[in-house]
């Protein structure tokens, strides 16, 4: 074991979204377990979220570092996070973070970490690291399959994407185009800035996956971006550390039979439309399966549940359903009554579902989620709710897929498959993390040798 004097210091810099911060925090724990001292940098509003999730056993090895963003009248400090951020302010948050580069430079110059691990959303961090002669690595917090698909499309390669199981449907392509168009429009008004130093092709990208889950996609991604891909395993929080104040939830689950209940959640960044909420509610009702459903609204738009859900829905489902604004997801997924997870297929959520052996009812919404859903179907641990040609959900289809995942012979086969995969990934994640840590140590050693720091 490393002594205090020989421990390497890693500076972790995630994008300002909970869906990115959570895997960075789990990575911090894994590195700490392997002898690193960690400095995790974010805005004060995000650090207040992170602080509550650091177990006491890591309090001496994981230190939080504040990054102050420049002032914008329309972006007060409580909006220095994507959690609850109005959509029209997203581009301003990106701009504010980028304008904080001088602050980040000062922090890094003062703290002198041995290595910087930064989010792929902030590739410009490499330029700062390079100026300070600090070795660095990118961290991609989603899966290799989705990344390889979109990089293939972006590069306009002359050959077809080699894995036909992954493809976008017409309505998904249209949604992706609208998102790209929106981003291009936001970038048109960017302040002129000097060209930034980007990571070299021979650099390193850490990715939260395992070869057993995405081996062929990892290999293809490494080929088309010409960058070394280092898997670090799936990063899943300890269910015992996933939150307190949930006694009513756990007691309610205790009252349900084994595998009789589905957990329903669409993540912290997506809010259902009225139409989606109605079809999902009525689909749950038609399925006749017990459910616990996390229903969330944007900040400042809190609604009365009875008004937000179909008329009479709460009375009709009675004790068969429980609706909450927040739930300890990891802890719920380990409960014996849970037989399926109705999920948007965000990478963190599907990693937890596989880890805890819960098959998935896939209802992807945006971004990487459609690709993640198709990957899950390909490996046999999920069924996807098929939308119509306009991309709309229908209650009958939702109910049918819920029944298919929670009952019958196909359900048993799927559950066996996801439990076996989860067991394998737990073993392989440890091996992958150990191997990647050795690569990071070598990267630091080579840098110190080159810069005469030994």
From TrEMBL:
Keyword Cytoplasm: no
Entry annotated with the keyword Transferase: yes
CDD domains reported for this sequence: GT1_Gtf-like
Example GO molecular function: UDP-glycosyltransferase activity
Enzyme Commission no: 2.4.1.-
Residue ranges of domain Glycosyltransferase N-terminal in the record: 13-224
Keywords: Glycosyltransferase, Transferase
Gene Ontology terms describing biological process: glycoside biosynthetic process
PANTHER family, sorted: GLYCOSYLTRANSFERASE
Sequence similarity: Belongs to the UDP-glycosyltransferase family.
Protein name, entry field: Glycosyltransferase
Organism encoding this protein: Nicotiana sylvestris
Gene name of this polypeptide: LOC104215662
